[in-house]
Specification:
The protein has about 375 residues and is mostly helical. It has two domains: about 15-30 and about 185-255 and about 300-365, Orthogonal Bundle (Cytochrome Bc1 Complex, Chain D, domain 2); about 45-180, Orthogonal Bundle (Cytochrome Bc1 Complex, Chain D, domain 2), CATH 1.10.760. About 35% of the residues lie in helices and about 0% in strands. The protein is built from 15 helices and four strands. It has helices at about 5, 20-25, 45-55, 70, 115-125, 135-145, 145-155, 165-180, 190-200, 200-205, 210-220, 255-265, 285, 320-330, 350-360; strands at about 235-240, 245, 250, 300. Strands 1-4 form a two-stranded antiparallel ribbon. A two-stranded antiparallel ribbon has the order 2-3. β2 and β3 (about 250) form a beta hairpin. α3 (about 45-55) runs antiparallel to α7 (about 145-155), α11 packs across α15 and α14 packs across α15. The longest helix has 16 residues, at about 165-180. The termini are far apart. Bound molecules: heme C (HEC) (2 copies). One heme C binds near residues 73, 92 and 96. One heme C (HEC) binds near residues 240, 327 and 346.
Length: about 375
């Protein structure tokens, strides 16, 4: 037995084995080092981040001048819109995901149709169901709007230049530089995780008992197999039995479709727009395989700072309670055979379900209101 469990403390109801301590440690530390993106030459650069934030709030990127990224990815709402399915010019098929910690991902969108943060940022600008814009409009804005042209020059080191498509990509790279700064704050779980690693029982006791019991269930149920590491996602795809009908008779093929879109994209990492001369950043895209088992798979979402719901790729569940009920009762018949060893009905009691929800809530913190964006060219 390990020292931690054996030691007498004032309130020691939840005991942790050495194996559990190692498993808890793997969900941190938080925050991780700032993300890097060699495919984006302005990633991490202060002036590009300023330009990106302006563009994120810029409705003139859209055809009717009425929709910006922030119409759906709302800052005060954990960067989503609280809807089951996003509403662009029409209702979309999927939910707006949070953008917290998006800089650490390598597949983007629920179906992984994007392989970089900048290429993913182009999609909504061009999609006729979303902002319905085009490269010419974005390029003209960067060339002709005085403030944006100035912001561009500061970010890229020269006046807006090149063809329309290149300027669209540059705008997306500034958008990506901004979004990569959206790292979620430390949550109550993080203080507990660090206390466990340090063996600091006093600090551990400050983490609610219900959350500790819920964390134990999370580990025992092997949720971490998919919700892995500091972000609580392995960044890959899975099927946990969420119905994927869009409308009667029409299904969302998820990852299977995403891989076709990725291969056919003018903006993937194999394109001329990748700034990484080494080619290393394109390896994953070059070698990814499209398998029939990808049908109906969706990206494993991070469990940090998920927001108030709804949840899942199509907002199928309104609350975390509903999500936990699903994992408790899921019918193995509804799963891909390859998901079966990982997802199985947990048959939780009401108290256990409440504990698991209590734990999941400790992965989020109250977020301070965002200050207004800094000016482009002070
Ligand atoms: C009409 C609502 C809407 C607008 C406007 C919108 N988005 Fe999104 N965003 C979504 C939806 C829905 C998805 C999920 C798409 C999918 O999986 O097919 C998404 C996905 C993303 C992702 C992937 C996140 C992840 O976790 O993989 C990024 C990044 C993103 N959007 C950035 C942007 C940027 C930048 C803009 C503005 C240029 C923008 N979005 C405009 C609704 C919107
Ligand atoms: C096989 C991999 C896998 C396992 C194991 C797994 N999940 Fe998930 N989880 C996913 C995927 C994939 C989704 C998104 C599914 C979708 O949108 O259709 C998801 C979604 C979620 C969501 C919703 C997040 C959001 O923002 O929409 C929560 C909460 C969640 N899982 C918690 C858990 C818990 C708790 C466990 C353990 C009982 C668990 N998961 C086990 C893959 C997994």
């Amino acid at each position: 037995m390990m020292a931690l469990a054996a030691a007498a403390v004032a309130q020691p109801p939840v005991q942790w084995s050495e194996e559990e301590v190692r498993a808890i440690a793997r969900h941190g530390p938080w925050p991780p080092p700032a993300p890097r993106d060699p495919s984006n030459r302005v990633a991490g650069m202060a002036n590009a981040i300023v330009l990106g934030e302006q563009l994120f709030n810029e409705p003139r990127l859209s055809a009717d001048g009425a929709m910006s990224c922030s119409s759906c990815h709302v800052a005060g709402r954990d960067w989503n819109d609280g809807r089951a399915r996003a509403i662009g010019r029409t209702e979309l098929d999927r939910r707006t995901p949070s953008l917290w910690n998006v800089g650490y991902a390598y597949w983007f969108g629920w179906d992984g149709a994007g392989d970089s943060l900048w290429s993913q940022s182009i999609r909504p600008i061009l999609d006729p169901r979303e902002m319905a814009g085009d490269a010419g409009r974005v390029a003209a804005l960067l060339r002709e709007d005085k403030a944006l042209a100035c912001g561009y020059e500061r970010a890229f080191g020269h006046k807006p230049s090149g063809d329309d498509e290149k300027l669209l990509v540059d705008a997306a790279k500034a958008l990506a530089a901004f979004q990569a700064t959206l790292v979620s704050p430390r949550a109550p779980f993080d203080a507990f995780r660090d206390a466990v690693v340090a063996g600091d029982r006093e600090a551990m006791a400050r983490y609610p008992q219900a959350a500790q019991r819920g964390l134990k269930i999370f580990l025992e149920a092997n949720c971490s197999a998919c919700h892995f590491g500091p972000r609580f996602t392995n960044g890959e795809f899975g099927d946990v039995g969420i119905p994927f009908f869009i409308r009667p008779g029409e299904v969302d093929p998820g990852r299977l479709d995403g891989l076709s879109k990725l291969a056919n994209s003018t903006f993937n990492l194999l394109s001329r727009h990748n700034d990484d001369a080494s080619g290393v950043s394109a390896l994953r895209t070059r070698h990814v395989q499209r398998l029939h088992s990808n049908f109906g798979e969706f990206r494993v979402p991070s469990l940090r700072q998920t927001g108030a719901g709804p949840f899942m790729h199509n907002g199928h569940f309104a609350t975390l309670e509903d999500v936990v009920k699903h994992y408790s009762e899921v019918s193995p018949d509804r799963l891909h055979s390859d998901a079966l060893p990982l997802v199985r009905p947990l048959a939780l009691t009401a108290e256990q379900s409440a504990d698991l929800v209590a734990f999941l809530r400790t992965l989020s913190a109250d977020v301070a209101a965002r200050p207004p964006p800094p000016p482009l060219c002070p």
